[in-house]
Write a structure and sequence with these properties.
The protein has about 250 residues and is α/β, with parallel strands linked by helices. Helix content is about 30%, strand content about 20%. The longest helix is centred in the middle third of the chain and has 14 residues. The relative contact order is 0.17.
Length: about 250
């Protein structure tokens, strides 16, 4: 029998780069509604909740028939917001953090995380990566890159192009080696691990890279990695909306 799994979509109104983005309209529906409806297509989720700190988002989710929970506006990370909601639902052994800025998230990404959590039997956090095919991904610090162990656990996350390939001078030739992976920022958690994460103190690597998963690893929590070959497109700025049409054409469903 599948392990009871909760899906939580953190959604803040006050984004420094794109205020109010959960409520922006995309082809007749808000972004948060599109994320919610994509999550509903996943087979592994038994319940889906939007975790927000804003009445406008809360009311809107209820209006389109979704479930929502209010959380404190003092929470600084999506993971902590997800943990606050997960603590209220102890009957769910697994929890998947679904980014609220992925209007066309692939439901198979969610199910891949669910199956990875099942395989790990509650021992590891789970996340996704995609092989890097374009050298500009390697050189853009906006994208986190991942170094993997032989058994597909994360060894390190970095905004830098890692690993450094000493024997190949031209970075444009690095992707062809098959060594490079881009992180897709969706996580699955055993609930017992998730509830411990907000209590962890920062670590130096996390502060340098501004990647919260390095805190978890720094405190000894392993992250199992599953590989996907389908992309996701987060909406971080208004300019990203212009890329959605092309993305949807290339990633139907």
């Amino acid at each position: 029998m599948p392990t009871p799994t909760l899906g939580v979509i953190p959604a803040r109104y006050a984004s420094s780069r794109f205020p109010g983005k959960p409520l922006i309209e995309i082809e007749g529906k808000s972004m948060i509604q599109r994320v919610y409806e994509q999550a509903q297509k996943a087979k592994c989720l038994h319940k889906i909740i939007v975790a927000t700190d804003d009445d406008r988002i809360f009311d809107h989710v209820r209006e389109f028939g979704g479930e929502a929970e209010m959380t404190s506006d003092q929470i600084t990370t999506g993971t902590e917001r997800v943990a606050v909601v997960a603590e209220k639902y102890p009957e769910y052994d697994f929890c998947i953090n679904i980014q609220g800025d992925l209007p066309y998230i692939d439901p198979q990404h969610i199910d891949l995380l669910g199956s990875t959590l099942e395989e790990q039997q509650g021992k590891s956090i789970a996340t996704l990566v995609i092989p890097v095919s374009k050298p500009e991904i390697l050189t853009d610090p906006k994208f986190a890159k991942v170094v993997l162990t032989q058994d597909f656990h994360a060894m390190y996350f970095s905004r830098f192009a890692v690993p450094y390939h000493r024997d190949i001078e031209n970075v444009s030739d690095w992707p062809a080696t098959g060594l490079y992976y881009k992180h897709i920022g969706i996580y699955g958690f055993p609930s017992q691990i998730l509830l411990k994460l907000p209590k962890l103190s920062p670590v130096n690597a996390e502060l340098a890279e501004s990647l919260e998963q390095l805190r978890w690893m720094g405190h000894g929590f392993p992250i199992k990695v599953a590989i996907t070959h389908t992309e996701s497109l987060p909406i971080d700025t208004p300019q990203d909306l212009e890329k959605l049409k092309e993305f949807k054409e290339n990633n139907p469903g």
